[in-house]
Structure to design on (95 residues):
């Protein structure tokens, strides 16, 4: 397990599951890829930025869908999920 994973677990932005996977909280994956959201009380997206650039709410929802269930497979030593943003997440975790 990498130092970054250990830091995420310690900060409760990731949780180990059955000693086989580490699941990332949404706040961790959005921070890693540079997605900033503001939401209404209903949970709907009010506005969004990706790496400082304003994006549409529908694009933000698509990005969230890609990074929602990302996890680290301990046995395989790899990131699973992440869609178009997998490389960014891997770069963050593995350096």
């Amino acid at each position: 397990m990498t130092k970054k994973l250990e830091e995420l677990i310690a900060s409760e932005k990731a949780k180990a599951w059955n000693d086989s996977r580490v699941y990332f909280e949404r706040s961790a994956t959005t921070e890693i890829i540079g997605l900033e959201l503001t939401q209404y009380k209903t949970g709907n997206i009010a506005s969004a930025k990706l790496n400082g650039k304003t994006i549409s709410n529908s694009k933000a929802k698509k990005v969230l869908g890609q990074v929602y269930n990302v996890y680290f497979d301990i046995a395989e030593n790899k990131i699973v999920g992440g869609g178009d943003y997998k490389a960014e997440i891997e770069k963050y975790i593995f350096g």
Remarks:
- The chain is about 40% helix and 30% strand.
- The longest helix spans residues 57-67.
- The two ends are 13 Å apart (CA to CA).
- The first strand starts at residue 14 and ends at 17.
